[in-house]
């Protein structure tokens, strides 16, 4: 029998945006690469009030595709509401670079 490793809990901070701006936090994941997965995002205003949330299963895809899809869906929702975007945050460097370099899959 092997003892379980202890989880390390790290503090993190959510920085507020300026009044009139919104912040999108998005993520996507799959059980395997590729396998079943899903995406989601949350949009908050300058006081941290939740304006929109969304999540969905996407079927079989890679984690990279799930993360790019979540980022795109959040940006599309913000644009459709005509919100000025201050930050769009994601935990995937590859997904963020794809958007920065106009190479979204």
UniProtKB/TrEMBL annotation:
Residue ranges annotated for the RNase H type-1 domain, each copy included: 25-102
Domain of life, source organism: Eukaryota
GO molecular function annotation: nucleic acid binding; RNA-DNA hybrid ribonuclease activity
Cited Pfam families: RVT_3 (PF13456)
Name recorded for this polypeptide: RNase H type-1 domain-containing protein
Taxonomic source organism: Kingdonia uniflora
Organism lineage string: Eukaryota, Viridiplantae, Streptophyta, Embryophyta, Tracheophyta
């Amino acid at each position: 029998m092997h003892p379980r490793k202890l989880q390390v809990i790290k503090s993190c901070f959510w920085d507020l945006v300026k009044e009139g701006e919104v912040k999108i936090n998005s993520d996507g994941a799959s059980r395997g690469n590729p396998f079943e997965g899903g995406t989601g995002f949350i949009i908050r205003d300058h006081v941290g009030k939740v304006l929109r949330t969304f999540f969905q299963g996407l079927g079989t895809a890679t984690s990279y595709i799930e993360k790019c899809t979540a980022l795109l869906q959040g940006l599309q929702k913000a644009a459709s509401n005509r919100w000025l975007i201050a930050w769009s945050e994601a935990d995937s460097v590859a997904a963020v670079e794809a958007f920065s370099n106009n190479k979204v899959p």
